[in-house]
Specification:
The protein is 81% helix and 0% strand. By secondary structure, the protein is mainly α. The longest helix has 35 residues, at 2-36. The protein starts with a helix and ends in a 16-residue tail after the last helix.
């Protein structure tokens, strides 16, 4: 019976990795579509968001079933509860990718990126894709050193986010009101995407170490043991 229970926990982890992989694909396509006004790519992201939502719901149902049937305690309980919270964050990250794709579709055939901010948004998009890939590896391998990489990337994205606001609020900004709105929304979406990833990484580190404040090191700690 215990073996079946641990198999269920492993299934939970595998599903989290799968959803994270889909989120990575979504943010990669969304940021590329945003940068190039690729409406076809944007539509792929929008349509695929339902898949992410459905898989997150299925994972939540599995976690609730484990809670009801297995009545886990201590660390096992924390694993299941953490999975529910991580699932919610991943679903929101998928929604953010969809929002970026919707900005692209809304402005098509014009470019959604306001003039003078292309390099900034290109870099933010690249960093968000790196964040998503790193998060997927963290969920797959529980290598806690990856949490530090996520924090560093998040700091870099925050700086770019601030630079966007400084740009649109400066006296030299000549963009139309719609361009100001697009820049503000897109920058916020990209910044929040990384915030959610860092939030997930903190939950993984806490689950592995029992300490919210402990810095990650290079040790891999299995989540399902």
């Amino acid at each position: 019976m215990r073996e079946v229970f641990h198999q269920s926990l492993e299934d939970v982890q595998a599903r989290l990795v799968e959803i994270s992989e889909l989120v990575t694909i979504a943010i990669d396509k969304a940021t590329r579509a945003f940068g190039s006004s690729d409406i076809s790519l944007a539509e792929e992201v929008i349509e695929a968001d339902n898949v992410i939502d459905d898989k997150a719901i299925a994972l939540d149902e599995l976690a609730i079933e484990i809670l009801a049937r297995q009545q886990p305690v201590a660390r096992d309980l924390r694993i299941v509860v953490t999975a529910l919270r991580v699932s919610a964050s991943l679903e929101r990250m998928g929604d953010i990718a969809e929002h970026i794709a919707q900005l692209t579709r809304m402005r098509f055939p014009e470019r959604a990126i306001p003039k003078g901010l292309k390099s900034t948004f290109t870099r933010m998009g690249e960093l968000d894709v790196e964040v998503a890939r790193t998060l997927t590896e963290l969920l797959r391998n529980e290598d806690l050193s990856l949490a530090e990489l996520l924090r560093n990337s998040d700091d870099a994205i925050d700086e770019l986010h601030i630079s966007v606001f400084e740009k649109v609020l400066s006296d030299s900004w000549t963009g139309e009101p719609s361009a100001t709105v697009d820049a503000t929304l897109a920058s916020r979406y990209l910044e929040r995407f990384a915030d959610h990833a860092v939030s997930v990484s903190k939950k993984v580190v806490y689950l592995a170490t029992g300490d919210w404040a402990q810095d990650a090191d290079s040790e891999s700690v299995p989540l399902t043991v």
